Amino acid sequence: MDEAAAVAGVSLTWYSALEDGRDVQVSAKMLRRIGDALQMSSEEREFFASLARPDPESAVTDPVDPTDPLLQAIVDGFTAGPAYVSDRFWNVLAFNGLADAVYGFSRAQEQNLMMRMFLEPALRDLHADWERVARQMVAILHLSTGHAPEDERAIRLVTNLRAESAEFRAWWDGFLLRRFVPTQSNLQHPVLGRLALTFTSFVASAMRTTDDPTVVVLQPAADDATRRALASARPTG
Fold this sequence. Notes:
Elements: H1 2-8, H2 12-19, H3 28-37, H4 42-52, H5 69-76, E1 83-86, E2 92-95, H6 97-103, H7 113-119, H8 121-126, H9 130-145, H10 152-164, H11 166-173, E3 183-189, E4 193-203, E5 214-220, H12 224-233
Antiparallel strand pairs: 1-2, 1-5, 3-4, 4-5
């Protein structure tokens, strides 16, 4: 702590108050200096700023209306692979037929993908690289909840997962932070076989909500076997 305060050019008393979460005034310039002193990544700087200078308007966000027809229209418009929409807490709000074929959304009692990822054996078995994907999801959730730490949905989700999953608890407490970036994942589906898919996401900014609904699309990698498997699962009619 002493070294970080010294490098950032602030008093130890002030820095201690900031770390303890006390009400102190923090400028953007000061946040940059502290970030430089601690050699923070861009994700860590964003999370730190959300804690040091919380935005009251984003503390509790407006839930996305899952009945909004725009959600279904967005995912139905993507036909190359699975697509789904989730809110910032990984609650799945809409999905296309291919996403249902791969993830079994319509058959699942739990519609929170984070809960399923850690607590449903079938989702764990589906991902050949489960640990890498699960760690990324925890890191993304950490960054998302930093903007809404008092949202009851975030508190409930994290509390339940920490109680039910030792892996989630360890990774959450380890403060993983990451934005959603395009990445390839390998799935081993019990019916469709091996699927090599590239995950891409974007925020549906046209939605009238502050809850940042995210559209996730999974495009087949340069893999003819994946394309054939998805073609066999594509709904007809």
